[in-house]
## 1
Amino acid sequence: MLKKIKSGQIVYGTCITSTSPTWPAIALRAGLDFVFLDTEHIPLERMEIARMCQTFRAMGIAPIVRIPSPDPYRACQMMDAGAEGIVAPYLERPDQIEELVGALKYRPLKGELLDKVLANQDGIDPPLKQYLDKWNEGNVCIANIESVPALNRLEELLAVRGLDAVFIGPHDLSISLGLPEQYDHPVFEDAVKKIIRIARQNNLAVGIHFSESPERQIRWMKEGINLIIHSSDLALFSQRLQSDMNAIKEAAGVTGHQSDNSGNVV
Amino acid sequence: MLKKIKSGQIVYGTCITSTSPTWPAIALRAGLDFVFLDTEHIPLERMEIARMCQTFRAMGIAPIVRIPSPDPYRACQMMDAGAEGIVAPYLERPDQIEELVGALKYRPLKGELLDKVLANQDGIDPPLKQYLDKWNEGNVCIANIESVPALNRLEELLAVRGLDAVFIGPHDLSISLGLPEQYDHPVFEDAVKKIIRIARQNNLAVGIHFSESPERQIRWMKEGINLIIHSSDLALFSQRLQSDMNAIKEAAGVTGHQSDNSGNVV
Amino acid sequence: MLKKIKSGQIVYGTCITSTSPTWPAIALRAGLDFVFLDTEHIPLERMEIARMCQTFRAMGIAPIVRIPSPDPYRACQMMDAGAEGIVAPYLERPDQIEELVGALKYRPLKGELLDKVLANQDGIDPPLKQYLDKWNEGNVCIANIESVPALNRLEELLAVRGLDAVFIGPHDLSISLGLPEQYDHPVFEDAVKKIIRIARQNNLAVGIHFSESPERQIRWMKEGINLIIHSSDLALFSQRLQSDMNAIKEAAGVTGHQSDNSGNVV
Amino acid sequence: MLKKIKSGQIVYGTCITSTSPTWPAIALRAGLDFVFLDTEHIPLERMEIARMCQTFRAMGIAPIVRIPSPDPYRACQMMDAGAEGIVAPYLERPDQIEELVGALKYRPLKGELLDKVLANQDGIDPPLKQYLDKWNEGNVCIANIESVPALNRLEELLAVRGLDAVFIGPHDLSISLGLPEQYDHPVFEDAVKKIIRIARQNNLAVGIHFSESPERQIRWMKEGINLIIHSSDLALFSQRLQSDMNAIKEAAGVTGHQSDNSGNVV
Amino acid sequence: MLKKIKSGQIVYGTCITSTSPTWPAIALRAGLDFVFLDTEHIPLERMEIARMCQTFRAMGIAPIVRIPSPDPYRACQMMDAGAEGIVAPYLERPDQIEELVGALKYRPLKGELLDKVLANQDGIDPPLKQYLDKWNEGNVCIANIESVPALNRLEELLAVRGLDAVFIGPHDLSISLGLPEQYDHPVFEDAVKKIIRIARQNNLAVGIHFSESPERQIRWMKEGINLIIHSSDLALFSQRLQSDMNAIKEAAGVTGHQSDNSGNVV
Amino acid sequence: MLKKIKSGQIVYGTCITSTSPTWPAIALRAGLDFVFLDTEHIPLERMEIARMCQTFRAMGIAPIVRIPSPDPYRACQMMDAGAEGIVAPYLERPDQIEELVGALKYRPLKGELLDKVLANQDGIDPPLKQYLDKWNEGNVCIANIESVPALNRLEELLAVRGLDAVFIGPHDLSISLGLPEQYDHPVFEDAVKKIIRIARQNNLAVGIHFSESPERQIRWMKEGINLIIHSSDLALFSQRLQSDMNAIKEAAGVTGHQSDNSGNVV
């Protein structure tokens, strides 16, 4: 996956929340490049993540795990469990991104020596550098940008060396902007465009995670999005179930059940 | 659920294969009356079934479990785990249905005395009968009819006292007819119509489990189907994922991934 | 445990249904000799049983597992999982007990040769006998006697060589007698006394599983019961919770919640 | 639950530690308003908590989860898993309570903007406020007060806006007072009375978690406790098992096993 | 795997009993063609088997599952869970092998029609045959031959059409011969040689499962074994741990712990 | 275990990563004193750790758990789950060791009072001290020393009162020294010798965790190591599987698969 995004290719994925052993085959048939495993909002722990990562990796689908908080220890646990990349949520400060880079690009170096290296990424001995590069090969380091304070510091944040990509969390961003779920509001759109622009200037891949119709992904793809993180098993199953059931009940003369998308936010 | 189908109401459900704790809320939002939990083809064991049954029952959604073979011991285990009804697969002989009735309507009676009761359902002492009726209140006894030998003995099979409903397995039935997956073939359609007709003569509810577009359910509903067992989480998620991804990739200029429904058969 | 019951000692146990890792320490503190793990009514599968058996055995508490049906394959699976003894439910015929003896006393012998050995337990070669005796050392073979047909054949059933003990299932027995839950009815009491008498004549241990007050165990202990299988975690927790809550609510002036013991039957 | 405690009603619950699928029905039969799920001392992770929360909520029993440390990220994970309220343990500083309020009352707001809001809870835009109020409706925010430093700062701690209730941890409190397990010591009693008094002045509900006889709850209920968090499945099962077994063994002439309540502390 | 054994190639595997998510990578590094997942003796249920099968298949390692008894329903469940082949234990009669062939080569055909087809494997309609062949493509049907009665009927057993391979269970075979664990006894060796000879005459692959030193596999490979099912994770871990610990303790001057291989039998 | 190491005895253990219920018996047969359960690198959560700890403790084998980061809350959770000792990874500062001592030797004291006690371990009231000593009896407090900054502060670190033992992490240490995996390099060897020397001066037990041949343990045992933490189930199984498979394939004329030890690092 890292190679693909570094070469500017579009990669495709969805969020998988179910541990069902029949799910990975569905992702494979749908031609996905990656799956997004969200441990921030979904109750998945290390054992479940490890099992899912092993299966997806064996299928050639990159498992990208979001950790619940910007905690480098948690990032390392997920990499040990088989993740190919980490998303840290709600980053607002450069040191949070640096810590993530430390976990993704410089392990098994830790502690005070790692702090020194992060303060000066060029100051590392070549033989050790080579060892660490091999150890961390292919790891994808992704920052969730989803708040006004992050927007205000965007140039600084996205310039942190070692960062590979940006995920925009539209729900949190809309709330931080004081425009909850108003994804068509011009202020919201400007914010997204700004993130795309600065991400691209820094040669970072960028994606936005919507759980609605594919049109939203297509619209933003045209604006430069190249990480297509589209919806989730939860939302896709729920949307199709409701639309099918509504059609059947209507045919049966039952007054239609209201469509309800609450709970689809990840 | 038993009351609803006895009064001729249409009931709505889908097949749930994932144990994800976020799933039941989706079923609730979609207004389902029941869920079909298939332990014949899906690797779900007693512990998982028990957890799912507890949650669905607490939500007022009836969990109906299919057992892997016509085994009354297995039926009892699933009832103890919290099922509200049992589907036994591929029934072809009246004694198989009687054994199922024994498990659903006469427990905790077992062994030789149960055999005697099943041979003569009127010969049971009234006080014991009353106790057993209360114990088994609301249990739904469902036969899978899905083969030519079953079709040939249909009057006899569906006349077994205690049976409440019939589930048609279209995939197995089409194969037994020598017409694999030819669901529009007139011979297949005649077979389905025959099952509906004789089920209704015996005052049994009847359903057919398709994992395709809602049009199939609607078409058969007009022919008299009143157990709407529509698709599965697996198929619904897969279908919507593929259609969304195809739309997105097309917009990106990627030649579309072929739609593939294999693996959706339950 | 086998040694203790063979020497006529009373052994004490309860039924454990929860897989909680904090439970075994409670059993240990209560001074139990064995625990009864019921896979007939409780949704516990091989993995859970294996984990529970390992821990209880390591504590010196014998795990005795009831299988869901008189199936020697299932008995072997539970022994492989770490059980120290097996209870087969609702036995009514000598061949069912013989099959259980085959699984508990003659494994790994199987198939046609085992059938031959069971037909003539003396006809086995001494060196092989010695090997099998060592392999099966300490295994406890227990029959559930809980029906009128079993009562009628009791001498024959309890004379099967290799059987070690009898568990009386009072609930099933009362139903088979047409006296559901009438545990003080003289016909019920006579049935229990008959089982105790013939068990003792055959030098078998005998127990009865009640989930009510300890007085019932004490009363039957005086009649000769020496396997004290008293209540279950489910019933004990429920009874104490209800009695404590009733006391608290009464003190708060809330009209007492009705005591309800349904669901305590195992 | 929030409504009930805000209106001054007494609510009743126990601590549930077992994940057994048969447990929730026991809680329902006992007429509980809430269950206390303790992830501080009991090895329960997100997946287990999510399953338990789904089932209890569907039954109308509020699941209240204690997190292992005062960590707002962990509080959010438990709310996402289905908790209706959070207890944070061993709080001693107002900022710890504010962070908890942030997680329970202002999500999905996070990061620097949340810090600003917590510093001035009135400074939030009305439309956003309305959105956040709806999102967090019914969430119950509970502080564990169980140490001398907390007692010393009690007025300040319990005045934090957004806090709904106080749980007293008697074991930790007795140790912090230098009076381990001396729950009848006047200094201990004065401390509890002080917490009750100040909680009530701030219109907060208040409870104390004992795992002993109901008399303790009743005694403190008379002093003003209105969150009855009585004992745990672990303690209730253990206490009843020991008392029943002691009665049986005594009748058998076995010298009684010593009653031992260690291990019942949660 | 089926192609390889049909073309006479040697295939290599071991028995995996642990569900640990880090295990499959070890099998991959060791260059295995298949893994043997034994549900006869090891407490693994459908959910665990399904997870293991998904991961091993994704890695290109064929999961071969042994079922606990010759039960075609169980065989189908394991195939649905992702197995690539089935071993049925302790087969002694041709109808047992035919039922296994029915489950592995003719599904989803079931019931009376399947019985008819098994009685006359040529009497099936070509279009249906083609459908079934595609459905069952690559499935490997394996019989455990491990008893004297099976030896006596070997020609008949191994001539059943649809059977692909034979697994010899040396432990059971030695017991059935009255020579427990005497794997070097000439009578035992003659029995193995006979099985190899007749298997090869029927163009079947053949393997023998030892959990000892590789020399045994090598010795029998030279006699014609081409399914190398060598040892198990359990035995390999245990043997290496004991030999390393003995070396270390000897160096420490501790008198060596006795090597003990009991418990390594699968 | 604490008694043994305090008296200077050598104790023997391995790292167990698999939750398989058949594993503990292997550890028992191998005569281990302790097992090392690593939650830093291995995806094991509280529920799995709790189950493993219960079983190992019941067998008289001490479960020693490594936590993922120097977090006293996590240490307490693992002690509550049944651990007999805790290893905290990559310690470089005295306050990190003090916090660990707080969690292992002074619980249930917490918060500000604990901080005070840690600042002055003699300033605690005798009756409370006695209570806490009993509560924490036998707990083993272990520091992972595996970096240059830790080496530089070694005297100070190992002098923290309450610390019982030191585990050397050779992999991390070699990287911190800029000598990745060069375990025979004189600079690496000098570092290990220094740790052994200062540990022994402070009367601490000391171990080093290699996953290679037993010779490394023996060599360092002669230098003073007395906690033998040798290899892991993962490495032992992998090494033996590869060596056996290589022998078999060589005999079959297959060009040997390269031995590969990557992935064995814990």
## 2
Amino acid sequence: MPDREGPFHVAVLTTGGTIEKTYDETDGSLRNVSSVLDALLKELRLPDLTVTHLPVMSKDSLDMTPEDRERILQAVRGALAVHDAVLVIHGTDTLVETGEFLHENLMQLTAPVILTGAMRPYEFRDTDALQNVTESMLAGRLLTPGVYVVMHGRAMAFPGVVKSRERRTFARSG
Amino acid sequence: MPDREGPFHVAVLTTGGTIEKTYDETDGSLRNVSSVLDALLKELRLPDLTVTHLPVMSKDSLDMTPEDRERILQAVRGALAVHDAVLVIHGTDTLVETGEFLHENLMQLTAPVILTGAMRPYEFRDTDALQNVTESMLAGRLLTPGVYVVMHGRAMAFPGVVKSRERRTFARSG
Amino acid sequence: MPDREGPFHVAVLTTGGTIEKTYDETDGSLRNVSSVLDALLKELRLPDLTVTHLPVMSKDSLDMTPEDRERILQAVRGALAVHDAVLVIHGTDTLVETGEFLHENLMQLTAPVILTGAMRPYEFRDTDALQNVTESMLAGRLLTPGVYVVMHGRAMAFPGVVKSRERRTFARSG
Amino acid sequence: MPDREGPFHVAVLTTGGTIEKTYDETDGSLRNVSSVLDALLKELRLPDLTVTHLPVMSKDSLDMTPEDRERILQAVRGALAVHDAVLVIHGTDTLVETGEFLHENLMQLTAPVILTGAMRPYEFRDTDALQNVTESMLAGRLLTPGVYVVMHGRAMAFPGVVKSRERRTFARSG
């Protein structure tokens, strides 16, 4: 089925993650400092879309606490009230935990909630960040209400998704 | 709705177009010579997909004849028999003509047929080629059978699509 | 010998050429419209240099007239009075003519005059523009007064330089 | 002065350093694993040059020992016997130590020895690696025998060079 007509409003909540790790030349470290989303979006042509960037936090997802996930849930609920799709940029290490948590706690969804990120930071020349965000923007238009991970040419609904470390991507569990 | 499980086979038919124009340093020309698809696909991570590249022709779409469109139709029919989605890389100038022609002549589709291309050739640093092919690959998994153009964050079903020269993108007509 | 100490002032005169050809999506043309130098310089780290950009013209060098070359000569003379090195960005097709003309008409040089350009426009992903401008900036510090072409790892003094079309680079004649 | 005529042979000794740090997606680390030189050289047009890549080691220069520097010295001596210029790719943190050591121990040089590296790894989109290696290749043709660091538009002879952490570049000391 094609996407719907008329203005389409996407909220992009950034929480950090590998995708947004940046390199500090003074000490050679790779850390989450601030969001790279605005630079990334400049590379895309999305003439029929309005994108609102809502920075929630800037964390490696291995460091996320239950309180962090609760904050993300609240932010998603708020964004859902006034947007046609909600993207959550998230570290891949615990993306599944957050996806399952959102799936369990978001009732009667009226729009798709899409988690995405990257295996290689956007700052790198061989990053998958651009591909995954590109896919997520289109998926926001095409998917029915639900909670999903979109990455590497796949759109998978929660529950029942795992991170495959060997294949460095996401897959259905079981 | 999420994409289906199991192996997914995409056929990519290349016909030329702006996306594939390459620069000749000896005479400064920009022409369709050969396909850039394989170089472009190397930039994408599509671990759960098999892609078959079927070069059909290498033409600026302004130069396409009714015989060319008939050839494309035959190639699409053949690809549909053994693939889960068919992408057609096409010049944007007459993409709508080919889309309408395919829509009128393909009966009882079992898979989506997706036309895409680019406003700026893949050879350029600011190309939209990668974005559009990325979107088309995911769209191949998500769209129901039909004939579509996918570009710049939109997936629009034929009939009723136009190329908007001022906005340099595609839109619904009327 | 190493480069000299203290502040170093480079003038970059842009005249157009292949290096600066940009793509017009509305009609698919590749033309000299405006200078790409400022975008290109943003990619370089030159902390001990001040660069002044002096746009002289925006022409394919095949279209240059004797009056154009006279204008370039006057601009170079003016820049030499207040800079430590002068770069001239020029189309490669008649770069040799301009180089010979400058060599014949610039007396008692106090700084190097370096002509450079590119075989592939800066707008392309596989451009040699960045390499050639990078080399020219360093060459401005290292070369003794004279008129040169710097490109593809070579710095050749006029007179006696030719464009090699088969090898798509410059070489010494005879 | 212009560069000399005839075939020109450059040896590039790689020792690791920031320039060559690569990202491991399985554990998010940035480490010296192998050389990126061959990928980097593919981006340059050097038709009149032969480049021989001699991997010496793959170390962060903070981890270099006196034995490591002795190995580099031996490798440079060997390369000088059969090349017209020798480049040493080195981490920036202790590049000065190695430069001073080479300067003290290389007698009667017949060719320039050029140390270079990068403040930002080649794997990053905003790397200075390409600029610095490009400059070093041309400097190999233009500099008189001696030991130098070439980076960010500067060619500075040892002794008397320091790494400026605040300006994230090299400068003359005192």
